[in-house]
Amino acid sequence: MIILIGIKMFNVEPRLQWYTAVLKRLRPTTPRLKGFFMGRLFAVVSGKGGVGKSSISVLLADELAASGSVLVIDMDAGLRCLDMMFGVSERLVFDLDDLLSGVKNLSEVALMCRGGIALLPAPEHPIEPEKLHEFLLFITERYDFVIVDFPAGRNDGYLLKMPKFCEFLVVCQANPVSLRDAEIIADDITAGDFLEPRLIINCFDYRAFKGGAGGKKYTIDDGIDACGTRLVGVVPYDGSAAAMMGGRQLGPKNRVRKSMGRIASRLLFKNVPLYNLKRL
Hints:
It is a single chain. The chain is an alpha/beta fold. It has 11 helices and 8 strands. Strands 3-4-2-5-1-6-7-8 form an 8-stranded mixed sheet, sandwiched between helices. Helix 2 crosses helix 11 and helix 8 runs parallel beside helix 10. The radius of gyration is 18 Å and the shape is globular. The termini are far apart.
């Protein structure tokens, strides 16, 4: 399949197994070494809806933009929201389906957002998983970071067609129901023989969490154990984050933004210890 993206096409299939092995073992400290590494591919997923997955995608893009070129792909067919969260909905004309069907090329579909971030809006109807797979193989040669914002739920058709070098970020909240659903999603990822998924606990409220469900004491370690996934960071609850839904960018001193900055640094293999939960 030929996709009009205005760049040289590379035969990347023979390199995928090698790249995955290198990423697991050597953990490169640069986003991409041209000619050797493809860009990093992140898939932001969740079990339950409403856990703040799209907010995490936007915040992660804002943080990674300081370290390289970023493309964000909205996969929530018929229910797109990232164009509003980036404040570019008035410029939206084409979407991901126009690109994958060959009707338009990348420069015509991608919306340029703050910080040089490029956004591919979600289509009106679900796209074929195989088309997405082939596109991701190509587009990771152009961008340092590609972030795919999945719809909530299991999405086995898309998940199993993601390239094997994809790094999954499972987003949940600190309650038993959300953690159980995150465990199910993480098990699906593990069964697909992907890289080890990472857990992001969002909207964390220490005062509410320390009492536990029904007054039962509950620690963050209990949550991690319940999910069975390695924690990459905790993002606090902050009512000011609601402004993101209208396209407003959080300031650098906002505690949600600072937490995502620490998460981004860990994803770039920097040694950043987990923050004291009481001080998030």
